[in-house]
Design a protein that fits this description.
Blueprint lengths: L16 H5 L3 E13 L5 H20 L6 E7 L2 E5 L6 E5 L4 E7 L5 E7 L6 E8 L3 H21 L5 H39 L70 H16 L2 E5 L11
Parallel strand pairs: 5-8
Antiparallel strand pairs: 1-2, 1-7, 2-3, 3-4, 5-6, 6-7
């Protein structure tokens, strides 16, 4: 996993794993809003987002609007943004979708994170104003991400590729069974046609056209026997050469089964896409930074 905790890596986690796995850590903050960004990571990316949202907030402040207060609930299942009074969930940011988290080292109240939207797949930057605990919140998000990734691996996330191969094998087996059924049907039809062709008319005397062996049985041959012909110079003809078997086909003319070239698993689309999405998100990792992107401090009274 491409994790870059930068200056955070020498700090110990602030909460017990049980607190984030079985419960959640609540924080109160003011929500400046979110805005679409072009990249999932980058200090300059969040600088532009903070500049944009602060400008919008100053305009709303001049119109008499205040920054709304929210409650953040951080756990291994994500970062929920709720109304502190009604507890209605405004945003639910899953951790594997969060790719960047940063706090302002010059303004201890401002922090932000970038999350990929589950519906539009756009990268959105969320900006908050907390009461001098921005760094603690970013560390808590980092710890939750770390625990969620470990839980994903322990619960079978590392076997996603293996599950795909198993699903591919199962799909190939079903295809072979279908082909086998069809071949059996064709073989039965050919046998019925041969039986009809060899039934002599009533009252006719059957003539033995083929030679028999010592047990008066017709020798079995899968191919028509080749009748040797004498060469023009009187020498015996060379022995017939047999063509090499087609190694790309099996006995029934079907493609041979190769478990290493099977396709993707035929899982239900919702489950498979979820596994792929989580694997991709965790592989991208979470970058945490402490940087300067506060161009002008917000008025704490708004």
């Amino acid at each position: 996993m491409n994790r870059a905790f930068n200056r955070k890596k020498d700090k110990s986690w602030m909460h017990t794993p049980e607190a984030l796995a079985k419960h959640y850590i609540p924080y109160n903050a003011k929500f400046l809003g979110n805005t679409e960004v072009e990249a999932p990571k980058g200090t300059e990316v969040v600088k532009d987002a903070v500049r944009k949202l602060k400008f919008q907030r100053h305009i709303k402040k001049s119109e008499g609007q205040k920054i709304p207060k929210v409650e953040l609930q951080i756990s291994i299942y994500g970062v929920k943004i709720l109304d502190p009074k009604t507890k209605d969930v405004q945003h639910n940011c899953q951790l594997h979708r969060i790719s960047f988290c940063a706090d302002d080292k010059t303004d201890k109240r401002i922090f932000t994170f970038i999350c990929k939207d589950s519906e539009s797949n756009k990268h959105l930057c969320y900006v908050f104003d907390s009461e001098k605990c921005a760094e603690e919140i970013t560390l808590t998000i980092g710890q939750a991400f770390d625990l969620a990734y470990k839980k994903f691996l322990e619960s079978g996330g590392k076997d996603v590729e293996t599950r795909k191969q198993i699903g591919g094998l199962q799909k190939r087996i079903q295809e072979l069974e279908t082909e086998n059924t069809e071949l059996k049907k064709q073989l039965q039809e050919l046998e019925e046609q041969l039986m009809i062709a060899h039934v002599p008319p009533a009252g006719s005397v059957s003539v033995k056209l083929q030679s028999t062996d010592v047990f008066d049985m017709v020798p079995f041959s899968t191919v028509t026997p080749l009748v040797p012909s004498r060469a023009s110079n009187g020498c015996p003809p060379p022995p017939p050469t047999s063509l090499p078997p087609d190694m790309s086909k099996d006995l029934f003319g079907a493609e041979p089964f190769d478990p290493f070239t099977c396709g993707a698993a035929d899982f239900p689309p919702d489950i498979q896409s979820k596994l792929d999405e989580m694997q991709e998100g965790f592989k991208m990792g979470l970058t945490m930074e402490g940087t300067v992107f506060s161009l002008d401090p917000l008025d704490s009274r708004c």
